[in-house]
Design brief:
By secondary structure, the protein is α/β, with parallel strands linked by helices. It is built from 23 helices and 20 strands.
Length: 698
C-alpha cells in the first residue's frame, strides 16, 4: 500500500493555530483550552467525545408524562426572565403544533430570554404536571435547540458529551468544531480501504453525529489509523533487527546431541520443537535471531535458555542471560554451575561469571574482566550487564529472562553488547495476542504449551474468614508430614500497611502454626547476605514456612513447596497471583494456593480471585488480566488503562491490529526512520507517546 503525503509541503494553517478569534472564542476561552492541553485546532478535533446522549423524540404536550423525561417541538409565544441573586430562571411559554401549551424553565442561562424569543425550538427535560386545575405542564429543560421553520426536531438524534475545561459551554464547543471542519478539514495521510470514510468525514461523524451507527463506523476508521501508525513502529523494529547479518552459531547434529546429553532433564516434545526453531535461527546468516519464548509457569523455559547459551559455548563463543532480580540471577548462576559440574570432566567446563549490583568491588571487577577477556563463557547478571563498563570478548547469544520487566530499549541495549548477537527473550507471563502484535511485534514467537512430566496439579481456593482457623490447622498437619510453603504479603512494614505486612504476618503465622514450626521471612530491604541465608535455609528444608513479599514471585524453585497463602489477594494483579501460585506444585506432591478473604462480592478484586480459582491456564488468565486492567500496566507504561490511545482499544480491536499490521509493515518497507516517525505523528497527537511508552517498557 503506497504512502500518501498529500499537502505535505503546505501546512494546514487553521489546524495548526490557536482557536482564538474563531466564532465564540475569545482570549479567556482560548486560554482555558490551552490550560487543558488543547493548544490548536488540530488538538480540538482529536479531543473526542467520551460518550453520547440520545435525544428523546418530541411529542405533543398532551403526551408528556409527569416525573419522566420528555421532549416537545413548538413556537415560543412569550419569554421572561427572573433573577434572584446570582441565579436566574428563563420562562418560555411554548405552543406545540397541536395548539397545546407548556411552560419551559431554563436555569442560569439569562441570555436565552432574548435569543429564544419568538423562535421555533426543540426542548427536552423532566416533566412536572401541577395538580392545580388549568395550570400548564412544566418542562425543566436541560437541552434545547433552535429549529428552522416547519422543522419537526433536531437534525441529529444523539448529542456528543465531552470533558471540557471550565468556562467552555458544550454548545460553544460543538459550534467551534463545526467551523473548523468546514473551514479546514484534515487531509489523508494514507490510502483508504474500499468503502472507508475519509478522515474529515470520520471526524465530522464523531463530533456532529447523525446517529450512533455512523459514529461507530467513524470510530472504527480512527482506530484503524492508530493501529496502522503503531504497526509502522513494529515494522521499523523488525527491519532494524534484520538490517545486519549476524555471525551464525551452527548447532550441528553432533553438537545438538552433546547439548541434550548435558541438560539435567529429558526435554518435552514442546521443548524439542523449540530447540529446532533455535537451531534454525542461530544458523541464519541474513539476520540475527530475535525470538520470544513464552510458556506458562513451570513449562521449562530455563532449560531452553540454557540450551541456547550452551550452543554459543559449543561454538567457542559466549552466552549471557539477564534477569530482573538478584535472586533470579543467582539461581540461574547456581543452576549453570551445577550443569557445568555434571556435564563436563572435572575442571574442563566453561566458567560461569555472576555480575550483579551487589558484592565487593574487587569481585565485580574480576567478573567483568573475565567476560571482557573471554575466560568466562557463561555470564549471568541483572541490569548491570547493560552498563557502560560491561564488555564481552565474543558475545553470540543474549537471553533476557522475565521479558515483561524490561522494555524494548533495554533488551536492544543488552543485545548491542555483542556484534549483532542473537536474542532470546522469555516470559512466564503469557503474552496475549494483542501485546504480541505491538510490544513484541518485532520478535518471532516460540510457545511452550506442555508441562514437564512429574509436575503435580495445583488447586486454588478462596478461604473466607470463618474457615481460616481450620485452614491453619490443616497446614500444620501438612508441615508435620514434610510439607513446606510460602505466605506472600503485599508490603514489608506495618507502618506501610496496617495489616498483611511481612512484619505483622510473621507473628500471625508463628502463632497459628505453633512453636514447633520453623518460620522465616525475606524481603527486598534485607542485606543480601542475610536474604541469601534465609533462602538457602528454605531450599534446604531447614525452614518450613517462608513469609515474603513478591520477591519470590519469579525464579524460586523449591520442589518440596506444597502450599502458598496469600492474605491480601486484592493487592495483586492477576498475572502476579498466577506467578506466585507457580511457586508450588513443582515436584511430585500436589500444590495448594489459598487466597484469604474477606473480599467484596463484586468488583475487579473479586473477578481476579474468581478467575484464578477457575483455571490454572496462564494463557487464559493473561487474556482475562488484559481485559480487567487494560494493556497499560502489562506493557509497563503506567499503572492501569490504555497506553495513550485516543480510540484504539487493543483488547476489543485485536482483529483490527491483525489486519493493519501486515499492510503497515508493507507500506513502511524501505522508508527511513525519520520518515516513519513523521508519518506516525501525522495520524494522531497521541501516537508518538504510545510508541515511546512501548519502547520504554518497564
Amino acid at each position: 500500500m503506497p504512502i500518501v503525503t498529500r499537502n505535505a509541503a503546505k501546512p494546514q494553517q487553521l489546524l495548526d493555530r490557536s482557536p482564538q478569534g474563531l466564532p465564540g472564542i475569545g482570549p479567556a476561552r482560548a486560554q482555558a483550552y490551552a490550560a487543558a492541553g488543547l493548544y490548536n485546532c488540530r488538538d480540538l478535533l482529536y479531543h473526542l467525545p467520551n460518550r453520547y446522549r440520545m435525544r428523546p423524540e418530541p411529542g405533543p404536550v398532551a403526551a408528556l408524562v409527569d416525573g419522566e423525561r420528555g421532549a416537545l417541538v413548538g413556537q415560543v409565544l412569550r419569554s421572561s426572565l427572573r433573577r434572584r441573586g446570582r441565579r436566574s430562571t428563563v420562562s418560555l411559554r411554548v405552543r406545540d403544533d397541536s395548539g397545546d401549551e407548556a411552560l419551559v424553565l431554563l436555569f442560569n442561562r439569562a441570555y436565552l430570554a432574548k435569543s429564544l424569543a419568538k423562535q421555533r425550538v426543540w426542548v427536552a427535560g423532566k416533566v412536572e404536571r401541577p395538580a392545580a386545575d388549568g395550570a400548564l405542564p412544566r418542562l425543566l429543560a436541560a437541552d434545547y435547540e433552535r429549529l428552522p421553520e416547519e422543522a419537526m426536531g433536531p437534525a441529529s438524534s444523539c448529542l456528543p458529551i465531552y470533558r471540557l475545561p471550565v468556562g467552555i459551554a458544550p454548545r460553544v464547543h460543538r459550534k467551534l468544531l463545526a467551523t473548523i471542519l468546514e473551514a479546514d478539514p484534515p487531509s489523508e495521510w494514507r490510502d483508504l480501504e474500499p468503502g472507508e470514510p475519509t478522515l474529515a468525514e470520520a471526524l465530522t461523524a464523531i463530533h456532529l453525529a447523525d446517529d450512533l451507527e455512523s459514529a461507530r463506523r467513524a470510530r472504527q476508521r480512527l482506530a484503524y489509523d492508530e493501529a496502522w501508525a503503531l504497526s509502522l513502529e513494529v515494522g521499523a523494529r523488525r527491519a532494524a533487527l534484520a538490517s545486519h547479518g549476524a555471525p551464525p552459531v551452527k548447532v550441528s547434529e553432533t553438537l545438538h546431541r552433546k547439548l541434550l546429553a548435558k541438560l539435567p532433564h529429558t526435554p518435552t516434545a514442546a521443548q524439542a520443537r523449540v530447540f529446532q526453531e533455535l537451531r534454525a535461527d542461530l544458523a541464519e546468516k541474513r539476520r540475527p535471531m530475535g525470538r520470544l519464548l513464552q510458556g506458562d509457569v513451570g513449562s521449562g523455559k530455563t532449560l531452553v535458555a540454557f540450551y541456547a547459551l550452551l550452543a554459543a559455548v559449543g561454538c567457542g563463543r559466549q552466552g549471557a542471560i539477564m534477569a530482573p532480580t538478584e535472586v533470579l540471577a543467582m539461581q540461574h548462576a547456581t543452576a549453570l554451575e551445577e550443569l557445568v559440574a555434571s556435564g563436563w570432566p572435572e575442571g574442563n567446563g566453561p566458567r560461569v561469571a555472576l555480575i550483579t549490583g551487589r558484592g565487593a568491588a574487587a569481585e565485580k571487577r574480576a567478573a567483568r574482566a573475565a567476560a571482557a577477556d573471554g575466560s568466562a563463557k557463561l555470564i549471568v547478571g541483572t541490569h548491570s550487564l547493560q552498563g557502560k563498563r560491561m564488555e564481552f570478548a565474543d558475545l553470540a547469544v543474549t537471553v533476557v529472562d522475565e521479558q515483561h520487566r524490561f522494555g524494548v530499549r533495554q533488551r536492544m541495549r543488552f543485545r548491542g553488547k555483542g556484534e549483532e548477537t542473537h536474542l532470546l527473550v522469555m516470559t512466564a507471563t503469557p503474552i496475549p495476542r494483542t501485546l504480541s502484535l505491538t510490544a513484541y511485534g518485532e520478535l518471532d514467537v516460540s510457545l511452550l504449551d506442555e508441562l514437564p512430566p512429574g509436575r503435580s496439579p495445583r488447586v486454588t481456593r478462596y478461604v473466607t474468614s470463618g474457615k481460616q482457623p481450620a485452614m491453619w490447622r490443616s497446614l500444620a498437619k501438612e508441615i508435620s508430614a514434610g510439607g513446606q510453603g510460602y505466605v506472600v504479603c503485599p508490603s514489608i512494614s506495618s507502618q506501610e500497611e496496617e495489616n498483611h505486612s511481612v512484619e505483622s504476618t510473621l507473628e500471625l503465622v508463628r502463632n497459628r502454626l505453633g512453636p514447633d514450626v520453623s518460620v522465616g521471612s525475606v524481603h527486598g530491604r534485607m542485606p543480601a547476605e542475610e536474604r541469601d541465608r534465609v533462602l538457602d535455609a528454605f531450599r534446604a528444608g531447614e525452614l518450613s514456612v517462608l513469609v515474603a513479599t513478591v520477591i519470590v514471585e519469579v525464579g524460586l524453585d523449591v520442589a518440596a513447596a506444597t502450599f502458598v497463602v496469600i492474605p491480601d489477594p486484592a493487592r495483586f494483579g492477576l498475572a502476579t497471583l498466577h506467578q506466585i501460585r507457580g511457586r508450588v506444585g513443582r515436584g511430585e506432591r500436589p500444590g495448594r494456593c489459598l487466597l484469604l478473604g474477606p473480599l467484596s462480592s463484586a468488583g475487579p478484586s473479586r473477578e481476579r480471585v474468581d478467575a484464578l480459582c477457575s483455571t490454572d491456564d496462564g494463557f487464559v488468565l493473561a487474556e482475562e488480566d488484559l481485559r480487567l486492567r487494560g494493556p497499560g500496566e502489562m506493557l509497563g507504561t503506567r499503572q492501569s488503562g490504555m497506553p495513550g490511545f485516543l480510540v484504539l482499544d487493543p483488547v476489543s480491536d485485536v482483529e483490527l491490529l491483525a489486519v493493519a499490521r501486515p499492510r503497515a509493515i508493507k507500506a513502511g518497507r524501505g522508508l527511513s526512520s525519520e520518515k516513519l516517525a513523521k508519518l506516525r505523528e501525522r495520524a494522531f497527537p497521541s501516537t508518538k507517546l504510545v510508541v515511546e511508552n512501548l519502547l520504554a517498557g518497564g
